[in-house]
Amino acid sequence: xxxxxxxxxxxxxxxxxxxxxxxxxxxxxxxxxxxxxxxxxxxxxxxxxxxxxxxxxxxxxxxxxxxxxxxxxxxxxxxxxxxxxxxxxxxxxxxxxxxxxxxxxxxxxxxxxxxxxxxxxxxxxxxxxxxxxxxxxxxxxxxxxxxxxxxxxxxxxxxxxxxxxxxxxxxxxxxxxxxxxxxxxxxxxxxxxxxxxxxxxxxxxxxxxxxxxxxxxxxxxxxxxxxxxxxxxxxxxxxxxxxxxxxxxxxxxxxxxxxxxxxxxxxxxxxxxxxxxxxxxxxxxxxxxxxxxxxxxxxxxxxxxxxxxxxxxxxxxxxxxxxxxxxxxxxxxxxxxxxxxxxxxxxxxxxxxxxxxxxxxxxxxxxxxxxxxxxxxxxxxxxxxxxxxxxxxxxxxxxxxxxxxxxxxxxxxxxxxxxxxxxxxxxxxxxxxxxxxxxxxxxxxxxxxxxxxxxxxxxxxxxxx
Length: 465
What we know:
Blueprint: E1 15-17, E2 23-24, E3 40-42, H1 79-85, E4 94-98, H2 105-118, E5 123-127, H3 132-141, E6 149-153, H4 157-167, E7 171-175, H5 192-209, E8 212-217, H6 230-234, E9 237-242, E10 249-257, E11 265-271, E12 274-277, E13 300-307, E14 310-322, E15 330-333, H7 337-350, E16 358-364, H8 376-388, E17 396-398, E18 401-402, E19 408-409, H9 414-423, E20 428-431, E21 446-449, H10 453-460
Parallel strand pairs: 4-8, 4-9, 5-6, 5-7, 7-8, 15-16, 17-20, 20-21
Antiparallel strand pairs: 1-2, 1-3, 9-10, 10-11, 11-12, 13-14, 14-16, 18-19
């Protein structure tokens, strides 16, 4: 070999992720960039294509000449669902409804179908997981029967499109999109290619004919929507169902909404009779008596949390008991365990509340899950009251974020929180500093500012407040 060193050509990327475009020289089962499974494909097998200009289907119009009435929302008859959607269903809109199994997706959508049918609209309900008879029984149980509600148990995309041609519906529900498969795509129903093909076909029909479409989607173990991420980009609205399996409360929020806000939350009560909207759900999260001072016991504190733009009252309960274990127990329910542990350390260090030799249990009432930092102050006051065996001031709420230095930081929506507390019979609120001068509190309601956690503990246990 001559003295010149032959240059080695860099290996060409032979495989590409269909989701994010990440490339690799060998096939792998999981994308190294977006961590999606089964999306890495042979890049050499995909030919490079160019598209020439062709005839247009609809001429472009000046924006002022576009008829905006075609995109106006139509109420579904379920006010809490309409709140999340932004007023109702828009003709041609495609809504993806996702949530854990058994959380109430099918029940809610069947109720919506029944109400739409009773208004005289033609509704097509495609079920790929149950038989038509099973859906009929559920419809009888929740009183969602209508003459113009059509049921079809199908798992083939071509058959689904045939039903749409035959029924000519105003609303289509597909339960669920992962159970529908296309004969033109390799693989079983539910894989990435199948879900992409099925969703694209249904979206094309919905847009072309102005049919409002609701797609039910499965979720993975970590709570994210199953299937390709492009599915969430294709649809107009993405709605997430939330709730504990052992609780009747269900929260419905819009993760994406092209027709309305994404900070609205709908509250529902799931029971044997179906799922019903809760226009005023705050009472579910309070123990007996709520604002009644006669029910006040040590270790309880009421806070006001914001779910979207809706204020909800929630009660935090704490129990502090002497421990015989070298490492005392710390248990939480409905709260972030790591944040509660941080608040206990701040209480002991900054507010001189002794907790190191005690078992501590902190929970919310009614099974609600609270994750907003504004509930820090209520958690700390509940634990402090339980540790000192002293009840807090009756008819008082508390909210504010607690820092590691013991300071209480401002939170958003103070006026809405105070107004909701006053409406439910509370007479005072312990709030972060600088909050009282931003609005006028309701008559007879006192807004008490506390700059640090130690001051807030003293104020909450002072009966003259």
